TrEMBL record:
Residues 1-22 are annotated as: Disordered. Keywords: Ribonucleoprotein, Ribosomal protein. The gene is rpmF. It comes from the Bacteria. This is Large ribosomal subunit protein bL32. Residues 1-21 have a biased composition (Basic residues). PANTHER family: 50S RIBOSOMAL PROTEIN L32 (PTHR35534), LARGE RIBOSOMAL SUBUNIT PROTEIN BL32 (PTHR35534:SF1).
Length: 64
């Protein structure tokens, strides 16, 4: 038989422990090239630019 709790955890103690478990809202920045919203320090999913330089090529350009 596995270990069991010695005492019942009250609802207040349980809820106070869980008070810091909430997810925060994502921080978004505006892309300087297209003006789309993206996460900081990542390539823009809309235009493929990062720090003013093209990082992702379109599929048509890669095949050519």
């Amino acid at each position: 038989m596995g270990p069991l709790p010695k005492r019942k955890i009250s609802k207040g103690r349980r809820n106070r422990r869980r008070a810091h478990h909430a997810l925060g809202t994502p921080r978004l920045v505006t892309c300087v090239q297209c003006g789309g919203k993206t996460l900081p320090h990542r390539v823009c999913p809309h235009c493929g630019n990062y720090m003013g330089r093209m990082q992702v090529l379109d599929m048509d350009e890669e095949e050519a």
